[in-house]
Amino acid sequence: MALKVRPLRLCTAATLAGLLVVLAVTTSTQPAQPTPLTLLARDGRRTLPITLVGDQEFVALDELASTFQLAVREESLGAITVSFKGRTVILTTEQSLASVAGRLISLPAPPSRIAGKWFVPVEFIGRAVAPIYDVPLDFRKPSHLLVIGDLRVPRVVLRYDPIGASARLTVDATPRATSTVSQENDTLTIRFDADALDAPSPPLAAQGPTSLVQSVRLADPTTLVVQLGSRFAGFKASSEPVDTTTRLVIDLSSTQTEAAPPTAPAPDLPPALAPPPSSIRTVAIDPGHGGDDEGVHGANGTKEKDIVLAVARRAKAAIEGRLGVRVLLTRDDDRNVPMDERTAIANNSKADLFVSLHANASLRRTTAGAAIFVAAFDAEAVQTAGSGGGRVPTFGGGSRDIELVFWDLAQTQHLGQSSAFANILEQQLHTRVPLVAQPVDRAPLRVLESANMPAVLVELGYLSNAEQEKLLASDAFQNAIVAGLTDAVIRFRDTLAGGGTQ
Asked: Which structural domain, as residue segments, surrounds residue 343?
């Protein structure tokens, strides 16, 4: 499909100067205009203007008709038909429902008539036009982008995590897209095997003056350029598939990293004296909430879902770096994961430890402090879990005894170790962050009940407390939580290796 781009008319210098003066005045008194919709096709790109109707974004129906060769006809009784090659969409002017080739779909608002023209919500493109069109239409509302045809346009999300004197830059491309990283002087260049990139502008917020990464910009449709800080010494890049995403991890080293003092080689130990293998191979960290479920809010707009995700990402990098174990996150972006699925991810991955992260709120604005919870069950539930079992036939004949535990009671088998880890974590946090008066407690928490491994839930603090809201969002607090959690995992691992918990 050819997209027509209208030629621009040239202005005289005097006219242009006058326009700039008018713009300077009007932009200071009028609200910012909504971001237009970018249409990206194989033969180029163009934009469609967006109009706000209340708090909804709309696009002119005649603009869509011209762009996609749609036939639009206004019927009697308040109906509008939109058709393409015999496939029809029927809109009703007073309802937010539409019939698409005989199937009902919903829209966030009904069509709106403005200055004699019909406007429809931008979601109309993905929900109504895409099903009847003859080439793929991939509508991405968050980035105001419509991909037309079979183009490879991965969504690119970047995050930067300081780790002591070093740092990690993580670049997720969805759907999967390979990339290459090269260095030239004080920049890194990341080139993607794609037709274009769906990236925010800028791709990464500006970092502090001492950061190893100063900024990231989009150099061309498929290339990111990373501006490095003065302390940068080197990098190591690796990539791996994660579901439908290709994750590029760039570990950055600093000139301020101190070399460890030389140590004598470890003596050869007889097998009986050699340290036992690690009893913790996989740690599951669960950042609570996500997506539409934002959790609690602070007075200044800080969201629980954002705080816990930031802490989880830092913890993953720190624990993997220090212990060399696998750390999986139940969510690694801003999406809602169902409660039962969070624990299932840990169970199916055979995690050895489960930590769910949350932030708290209270009607009393002065309430503050972190807390650690272990699952609570009544005596009957514990007895039910402990009495399950029976005899089952074996493949070669005969039978054997097995122990059966209902999934929603799986945690009952690990309450002792869960409590042990909770106490170790409290010891590691009490000198690092504010804690409530009784830091370790029990509660009937659904996210812990089905965990088939030691499991705790950590409330990082109270966003309803103005001082704690500011504290929880700070790098210093998040690094302190991560340091305490990492040390607790190490001590818990050592305790398990020594047979100290049952």
From this structure: 282-497
